[in-house]
Amino acid sequence: MLTTVTCQFCQKKFQIFPYLAAKNARPYCSHKCYCLHKQTDEYIRQRFWEKVIIAKPEDCWLWQGARRQQYGQEYGRFLYQAKIHLAHRISYLFTYGPFLDDDCVLHKCDTPPCVNPTHLFLGTRNDNNIDKAKKGRARKVLIPQQAKEIFTLKGKYSLSKTAAMFNVHFMTISDIWHGRIWSWVTNDENAL
Ligand SMILES: [Zn+2]
Ligand SMILES: [Zn+2]
After folding, report:
1. Domain residue spans of the chain
2. d(Cα 62, Cα 65) in Å, to the nearest integer?
């Protein structure tokens, strides 16, 4: 007789023996969920994007978490590596990689709580009108083989590189890597 519990990482329901459930001995549905939880950065990234209303690639993605006043404007804030950061700077970091502390992450859209990476660019205050950064890549329908292929690239390439390779939005890659979409074709790789 099995009992149904909820994975503490992906919220998926799965079945285990009741004595394990009672001890909370299997909080994760799969080895993948266990690993993702343990890989702190992955876990933090997931937590970060959960605080964002992810709209269409061209729209502003508004931060729903804590905010703070800075430069007379209200920005999102996010605790990362024991320091409080402006949320849009973390969005830039997670999407495009590290930059210098002195670098400014600026908004093309003039919307301080927006964390849509395609609305952000690196520079100084004067760079504002120079940069006309590219629009986000249009979402494209993938076939199962491609989804599987994308999944196997996890950890080998960055989000943006993989997105460019398949000409899809980077959030599509993120969703596949986290098992939020296409998990029925990528799941066999995650089995214990
Ligand atoms: Zn899970
Ligand atoms: Zn925006």
Report:
1. 3-31, 46-129, 137-187
2. 9
Per-residue pLDDT tens digits for 110-124: 889 999 999 999 986
Count of C-beta atoms within a 10 Å radius of residue 13: 10
- Taking a C-beta distance cutoff of 8 angstroms, is the pair 140, 167 a contact? yes
Any alpha helices (H) in 116-169, and if so which ranges? 144-152, 159-166
Condensed to tens digits (0 to 9), the pLDDT of residues 161-190 reads: 888 888 887 778 888 888 878 887 787 654
Q: Report which bound ligand comes closest to the CA of 46.
A: 1
As beta bridge partners, residue 4 has: 15
DSSP 8-state secondary structure symbol assigned to residue 113: T
User: How many angstroms is it from 14 CA to the middle of ligand 1?
Assistant: 8
Q: Identity (one letter) of the amino acid at 192?
A: L
Q: Read off the amino acid at residue 90.
A: I
Q: 59 C-alpha to center of ligand 2: Å?
A: 6
Q: Which residues of 111-120 are buried (b: 16+ CB within 10 A; e: fewer)?
A: bbbbbbbbbb
Give the C-alpha separation, 151 to 52, whole Å: 23
Judged by DSSP in three states, 97 sits in coil
* Ligand at shortest distance from the CA of 191: 1
Give the architecture-level CATH label for domain 46-129. Alpha-Beta Complex (3.90)
Q: Which ligand is nearest to the CA of 192?
A: 1
